[in-house]
Amino acid sequence: QVQLVESGGGLVQAGGSLRLSCAASGRTFSYSAMGWFRQTPGKEREFAAAISWGGGSVFYADSVKGRFTISRDNAKKEGYLQMNNLKPEDTAVYYCAATRKSSSQSADQYDYWGQGTQVTVSS
Questions:
Q1: pLDDT at residue number 66
Q2: What is the pLDDT of residues 49-87, one digit of tens each?
């Protein structure tokens, strides 16, 4: 009942920036927090950032803290991940997700996922 579509990925040099967007549709009123996860081949999907429904509570993985900023616009049903000072180790497929929890860092607690968008950071 909820569809999520990521966009904004691409190729960028180390130190550059990208802004990812997550457009939601369907019956999103049942969902609260949204999060961003990333995954590289051969590795588990890892948590990057999460934000509560009202945007008042955010959490970041240590690996991205201070460089990434998560936000949302509920009127537009969109979520965002501003990625600054990108590093080669940030290279991954990035996914947005929705959960009924107020906030969560666990992928198992997210019910809907986007298709993913590739972010590649060159050295």
A1: 98
A2: 999 999 999 999 999 999 999 999 999 999 999 999 999
What is the C-alpha separation between 119 and 109, in angstroms, rounded? 24
* Entry field: residues in the chain: 123
How is residue 102 annotated by DSSP?
Answer: S
CA 110 to chain CA centroid, nearest Å: 12
CA-atom Rg of the chain in angstroms: 13
Burial zone of 84 (CB within 10 Å; 0-12 exposed, 13-18 middle, 19+ buried) = middle
End-to-end CA distance of the chain: 40
Distance between CA atoms of residues 67 and 3, nearest Å: 28
**Do 50 and 34 contact (CB within 8 A), yes or no?**
yes
State the Cα–Cα distance between residues 56 and 32, nearest whole angstrom.
Answer: 12
